[in-house]
Amino acid sequence: MKEYWHKKKLIWIIIALGIILVTFMGLSIKVAGKFQNKAQNQLSVYSGDISMTIDYGYNQYAKYGRYMNVRADVTNEGDDFHGWFQVIAPKLDNNVFYRKEVTVESDVTENISINIPLTDDTGILHVKLLDDDGKSVVEKEIGIKIGNYQKDIYVGVLSENAAKLDYTHQVGSQVFYLDENNLAEDYLGLDLLDVIIVNQFDTNRLSDLQIKAIQQWVYNGGTLVLGTGEYAKDTLAKFQDIFSIQYWEELEEYKLTFGMNEEILDRLKRDLIKYDEANKLLAETLRQNKAMYYGYSAATEKGSSPTEDAVALGPSGWVQNLLDKLKIVPIRKNIIHASIKDGVPKVMEKKHILMEVSSFGYGNVQLFNLDMGVEGEQESFGIAMFYSVMKNISSTKRTQLNNEFYGNYVDYNLYNGMSYVDTENIPKVGKYIAILAIYVIIVGPVLFIVLKKLDKRSLTWILVPSFSLIFTALVYVVGSDTRINEPYVGYVEILSFEEENIVQDNVYFALTAPYNNRYKVDIDNKYQVVQLSDSSSRYMYSNRKATEPNLDRYLTAINYGTEKTTLEVNRNAAFTPIYYYSKNHYSFENKITLDIHYEGDEVYGSITNGFQFDITNALLKCDGFVINIGTIKQGETIDIKDKESQIFISRDDLYTTTIINRISGGTDKLSDNTADVNRRNNVLYHLLEPSMEGHSKENFLIGFIQGDAEQGVISQLAEQMDAYGTKALSVPFDVDHTKEGKTFVPSIAPFEEVEEIGETQYYNYKSLENGMKTLEYQLPPDEKILSFEYLKNRNQVVKKDYSSNFSGDIYFLNYRTGTYDLVFTTGKFGRLDDVSSYITDENKVTIRYEAGLTPNEYQVVLPYISYWKEADHVTN
């Protein structure tokens, strides 16, 4: 009987388990059927009626020190939903929450995106959808594919025939294929890219916002490459006016090698080997630091930390295979005749310009006069083109890439500019010394004499503490107007004119409080605010103990609402600033008129201020000279002749001379600077440094605005708290170099043929490191060169700590004899009038610099060499 009941009990248990299993399977099938397509995607997640598919970066790649676009498609198959889309890239210490207010109606899919900076090394992206109560509806934690573990240039390609651009994968690059559907509409969404190539693509397909994003991306340092040939009309449709491009549609067919010869081919092969060696070195550095691979348990569990496979290159068979394939391959190509404003020719063949480069803001535009697509055996020709692209990326991107590879770079000038508090809020010690002196006199001799005379010395123990309390209260009252009791904002705002009446308004600000309580501020939602990002190298050198990121702890939250943007500060340490960045791009009439001339002697001309505000502490940066302009009052025209000036050859000159401090309102003694002087000093350093990196366009007026030029982020913050900062403007201008039918070219440096991929220049020119350097310069082929000059006023000796001015001999290659002729010697400045032997039919010049270096001269900055040409061939 007992055995019977045991069997019956077992049967009921089996039946119950079967019912549970069938029910569970039914539910699973129902849910899987509802989301079966999304469930196959590892970046998809769902809960109830809400599903979310997440994407980020390009092909899910990102880089530390860059901005990253995070996107999500949120599908709602239930009731209308309202809440917040939250993104975190967890940090080691305190997180920044980015939240965007969202509404997803029933049976609708909404696309949501946020640009965030990636500044730390946890390798994780955490995405949540929150309801109005702050509760998580659906969330996903993703391992980020980090691009810093390879020394690659990131290239975006817009092409209707991308297969013909496959060669772009071959030489130190990561390539992402784009179109009108996945190209960002904000330039921060393009920040991951170093180069964008547009070839055989109708740019009319791009929206105005996408074109504007590309334009701003170039202005901020990006390199835009435009292929033309048969497809010039389509490619240039949206870019022709923006970048001042002219072209004629007639095609001419030529057999070309894209300037490739045996010497350049050998140089390309050496660069490939160097690139491979650099990647091996980086891989070895990372391999030795296991804490970087597996530093965070959460990252390791979710596969977000880089693995051995992700960073180790293994055998470099691909390099050897490519070296074996590379050869000089002449192919037939149709070329057009096109030009871009201020273009510098970089590749010429058969007296035709095949490629030229023009600076635009901090970036550049590369114009190819042929279709960049190749097929099959033509791959070597394509690699030759891409090699030229990589050699000529903007100096801004070169600097950024080298900072990312070799170590971090933080613009301390910018951060310092936000850190000063006006001296009015700092207590003056004089009155406190007086109060202390009175206290000492009263509790000392006065109290002693009075009590002795009254024979009440026993009251000393009562009166001394009483006077102490009274004077303590007095000090507190006297100092009440000097103490900072509420949060305040420090800021630097820079209005940079890109075109005649278009301005980029960059606002950098820091929120600081005298306590660690929570607080918040609101601004208009038209202003996009993010945490201020810098280039971080901690991913390479970190050796921390494994730590689980705390996803609930945050330093600040940036909430992008439909009506306003709210910045929350969450228990930040007292007097510790949190840095933010906001940018805006709008029409703003430029009322500065500059009529500036320079022909090798003194810079002269006039500046008119047509704005309704004064411009103070102004300087003019013109062809290497920094000129102290001072104040330009509203409506005033000033003559710049005889103004204080100094030639700047390298970055070191900024920090080893005092002219910048005098322009800022200080003296030769930096220790006497006020907060305002220091603030202006840092802003000028921040704006001047990039012009020391080899830009061909380096002429601009910088000044500080007195009064409100335009209401913006700072004016809204100032309504809620005290604000300390400055507003500057930067206005580019063209210089008239023409005189008596001739035109003066201040420097041949922009025409230098770059030798190596990713070659960086800390100085305005290359430096002489081993006593001798030979450089080739490709001058515009349609110019008639009249003479070369080595001018004393452009080669002034400036004492500096980390570099030296050139002191030696300058030789020009004599193309008739094949020898180098001594032309100029330091101390013997002059002119070379007979140039016929030293310049080819295509206007190529080769110069050798020689100097005997002393042990202390490890960096010698090459000199300015100028030239004159016939004015008829000049375009300003």
Automatic annotation (TrEMBL):
UniProt entry keywords in alphabetical sequence: Membrane, Transmembrane, Transmembrane helix
SUPFAM superfamilies, per the entry: Class I glutamine amidotransferase-like
Keyword Membrane in record: yes
Entry annotated with the keyword Transmembrane helix: yes
GOLD domain ranges (all copies): 741-853
Membrane-traversing stretches: 12-33, 432-451, 458-479
Protein name in UniProt: GOLD domain-containing protein
